[in-house]
Amino acid sequence: MLPESRVETFRKAAQSGSAKHGYKGLPVHALPGLHEFVAQILSNALQPGATVLELAAGTGALSLRLTDSGFKVVACDYVRENYRLHGKVPFVEVDLNQRFAGLVPLADAVVAVEIIEHLENTRHFFREGAAALRDNGILVVTTPNLDNPVSLAYLIRGGRPLWFSHDDYRAFGHITPVPLWVMQEAAQEAGLRCTRMDSFGDSGRWVAGWPRMKWFARLIDRVMAGPRHKSEILVAVFQKGPQ
Question: pTM for the whole thing?
């Protein structure tokens, strides 16, 4: 069971009204456009009428968007009172730090937008996410991108990557940084293969008025080896099936 302090963090975040954008009156606590980006990935990958399980649904904004896109959606969250679509879109109360796959119907897709950084065990999440999928189903995960040059500049300068400051830990419950390589290894161990790796958002906004950090991030970008996903949010798609 989650500590009451962390439950209260989630409850306040959804009820604060601090979201600056939304969908049909439901607040969205994610970067503008991220929900649309994820919805497009699902529309490209699934047939109309496919079953989608949304984990940590919050108010239900993405669940409603996906329902409007023609999917059969089941929403999950730990804080029941935050969810605003009771009676419209099916809801299951779950603690994602515990076993949850057996509590929800098997799905063609499982969606976890901006949640794994709030969880205590990344590998447990991927095992349960895989168990909740039908064969050949997909798991879509988003989380702060620790590998972008700006986040690495923050890490080198202050000891913590972007979105994982002390205040982020206390105010938003960002307790678990998940680098790309950890995500890939955890998914593979759970029987999932990566079919798409992308990133979303403008990480440069965090150094726009900070010339030295902007220069430092550019220097890091130049010396980093291999291709990198440079945007603020990492977006990954994994499929259940043979490796």
Answer: 0.92
Give how far Cα 241 sits from Cα of 52, 151, 187, Å.
18, 33, 11
Domain range 4-145+175-202+229-240, CATH class: alpha beta
Domain map of the chain by residue range? Answer: 4-145+175-202+229-240
Q: For residue 121, count other CB atoms closer than 10 A to its CB.
A: 15
Asked if 29 and 19 touch (Cβ cutoff 8 Å), the reply is yes
What pLDDT does 228 receive? 79
pLDDT tens string 204-216: 999 999 999 999 9
| Dist. CA 63–CA 57, nearest whole Å | 7
Q: Look at residue 156 and tell me whether its pLDDT is greater than 80.
A: yes
